[in-house]
Design brief:
Two copies of one chain form a homodimer. Chain A is globular. By secondary structure, chain A is of the alpha/beta class. The longest helix of chain A is centred in the C-terminal third of the chain and has 20 residues. The first copy, chain A, contains 19 helices and 15 strands. The interface between A and B is large, with 43 and 44 residues.
């Protein structure tokens, strides 16, 4: 540790911002397994994937050997509008806890999308524009990804079609209006605009939709329209790649002040933010240079890492996307109504799954009432109102800092604070009113879904 | 202009942050008129004011001679959690407009309260704590002030009682929940908890309340309880003083890059943010050192500067606060349902009123559909989703930048972006759906309220 006084917020200069993303797969001896075509069970080719996704993004998806990939100037220009994001020293939290631990968090919520999602949205929009496309389609559940993509498309003057799960469309009108402010066309799903939507509406009149259905509609729209492609906000390796700006900035900021973290913590839904945060640190571990304790935190209601199976599965509940080898609860698993919408995903990024399987990362699951209690404890001293997703990381960071009080260890803890909770106040209200419950699936329930994993695994 | 490349966001170092607030009244030859006791029509004394307000704050209120007032360490420590705020060069906006103008904005929305209100809330909470008080009371309309005060009180472990206008309490449940997250007690006003509340409820059963009524309840609670004082989020000179951190940081950032602004623009409701932004620049004008064009922007629906009278009036519609000489529409004036809740105030800060009267500042009024159109234009290229209040300044900044396209002038425009619009999406929705209307009061209407100004003016 240097003698330099560490400020409350470490901001990098613009010229210290990353000029390349870091592709951690290049440093992995055992790579994540390839995506499979569910029909042929053979690895997906560039040609096959390019029908659905933008070509440059497919190249990034398939590239597991190039360690550094240049960030195009147009994307770096956009990054400069809201990045570098601050690495905050939680002095007030440390004081309140009375812990000898040193706590830092990388705060990705200081942009209108309210989360880290913008880091990949702008990249995906850029490559769509570069390819000469008219627009992109996507789905959104809680709405963070849809918001980020709307902002990115507005910037590059691309048409943006968002299929929003109908119950969210109705319950989160504010999210919908933010997307409309950025010019996106937001359609409640299921809708009459697609074949699959009409079919579902005919079979289940009055349904409020699901993420799986919204994905199916977005993919159908993309492949059936000239000049459109489908984009996805997490899970894929390309998304994790773009999110490495988080980890690279974090590392530069820490290095600038000679700080070496002992523990790095992040919440994990699809895994892109955590993967982005830890990639440069895991790279050091893979190259045998340094060692860190890395902790993924997931909701006890959707415990893909802690209680799932490492197997090939569909990335989507609609079963239209390729098969990916990952820790999964089974793509038919429907998580209970946990308010951390962004963590309600049955599987986990293939890269993170492989790192977890190799023992480079551990995982913990936490119940949501504990998460909201931690969120409130954090908010009251650090000021920031955290998103429920991000608060999973806060919960474990507090746990670790409290352990240090007992042991007297001066551990340095870094966690990712992925976003703000402005659009999650219904959940906070339930928590304040004591109406929030914790649901943990039974072993029997999980076994039921595990039995439906695709046959390729057998 | 120096050759130094100007970054997208100018962040000051922590040691460049202001250590003192700047009291612009000290440099004014003709000072704002003193507050008057409405019963005696004599200037309010320290003793009289200290029954309602914290003593140190009253001293600041009455001090019009000390140019610089130290910011206590405890407050500076809190400031470091969310300040310095960035001064942003709007490169993307300039490019989109094709203007030769150089546009900068000081962004105060990067904190959970979502606005500049926190700058004064933390100061007021600190002095309350220092005085050994148990807690403070206040009212809130749109909710920004209440949120900021909740955060500040939570930090200093003070009891915080917020009277929230009942219709807002019901229509803005998210705002209410943010305050509860920070431990505030939020009471819909009128309530059964005060004498005045019970009286109003008896006379007007089913009323949804008003800001005037909420102020009355907050003041009654403060003066009738041991260890409590009342705090206010705008209008008063002490609030304007605290908000000078905005202008001081802005000036330091501009000076660092040898930038001299030609035009400085801010929205004006009670006037504290604009006053805070312009104080150091006005100081230079008062001392004859430099000259700037300063523009206050107000809603056409509530045009206190552009169509009001410079006269003594009550600061509050409840007529329980002292009389202040200010530009006012009459304290009984009820603005139409303009969604920029923070600008729906019948009067204007006494300091700003005096500066306006001396010709140091001009004022413009704008209609809200134009304001929302400007907000959307801004959001789509600069990313940030602005609050309706702040967007009044954006509208005039865009007007001025567009003028430069015609004239070819390379003017430097600086405006204050006071907050974010996350909690204003109902208003954005109305705008998107074409359901927003503009209301401009008639001369007859304004004359009616002008005739009710207190007799002291005659």
């Amino acid at each position: 540790m240097s003698d330099k006084k560490i400020p409350y917020k470490i901001y990098l200069e613009e010229d210290e911002m990353p000029k390349q993303w870091y592709n951690v797969r290049a440093d992995m001896k055992k790579k994540p397994e390839p995506l499979l075509n569910p029909a042929t069970l053979k690895p997906m080719t560039l040609e096959e994937l390019s029908k659905v996704f933008c070509e440059d993004l497919v190249k990034q998806e398939l590239d597991d050997t190039t360690p550094y990939i240049d960030i195009p100037d147009e994307i770096r220009e956009f990054y400069r509008m809201y990045r570098p994001s601050p690495l905050v020293r939680a002095y007030c939290l440390e004081k309140k806890l009375g812990t000898p631990a040193k706590i830092y968090y990388k705060f990705e919520g200081n942009n209108t999308s309210g989360s880290h999602k913008l880091n990949s949205a702008i990249a995906q929009a850029y490559y769509a524009k570069k390819q000469g496309l008219k627009g992109v389609t996507t789905e959104t559940g809680a709405g963070q990804w849809g918001t980020a993509l709307s902002m990115a498309c507005s910037y590059f003057d691309l048409d943006c079609n968002v299929y929003m799960v109908k119950c969210s469309y109705e319950q989160k009108p504010f999210r919908r209006e933010v997307m409309r402010t950025y010019g996106a066309k937001v359609t409640p799903s299921p809708s009459e605009t697609t074949e699959i939507g009409r079919k579902i509406l005919a079979e289940h009149p009055g349904t409020t939709g699901s993420l799986g259905c919204a994905i199916s509609e977005a993919v159908e729209t993309a492949v059936s329209r000239e000049g459109y492609r489908y984009v996805l906000g997490s899970v894929l390796s390309q998304v994790l790649l773009h999110q490495t700006v988080i980890g690279l900035e974090t590392k530069t900021a820490l290095d600038k002040y000679d700080i070496k973290p002992d523990i790095i913590i992040g919440c994990a839904g699809g895994g892109s933010n955590l993967g982005g945060l830890i990639s440069p640190f895991v790279g050091e571990m893979l190259r045998g240079e340094k060692n860190y304790q890395i902790i993924a935190v997931e909701p006890a209601s959707c415990p893909s890492l802690t209680r799932g199976t490492y197997a090939y599965d569909f990335c989507d509940t609609g079963k239209v996307c390729p098969l990916q080898k990952m820790y999964t609860l089974g793509c038919d698993f429907i998580p209970s109504a946990n308010h951390a919408g962004g963590l309600r995903y049955h599987g986990m990024s293939g890269v993170l799954s492989e790192l977890y399987d190799q023992g480079l990362m551990e995982a913990r699951s936490v119940v949501q009432t504990d998460v909201f209690a931690a969120a409130e404890e954090f908010a009251r001293v650090e000021g920031i109102l955290p998103a429920p997703e991000s608060s999973h990381a806060i919960k474990v960071a507090l746990d670790e800092a409290k352990k240090c009080i007992e042991t007297g260890e001066e551990k340095t803890i870094v966690f990712g604070l992925t976003g703000t909770g402005y659009f999650d106040m219904f959940a906070y209200e339930k928590f304040h009113d004591g109406e929030m419950s914790d649901y943990i699936p039974t072993d029997e329930e999980l076994a039921k879904y595990r039995d439906t994993l695709p046959k390729v695994n057998k």
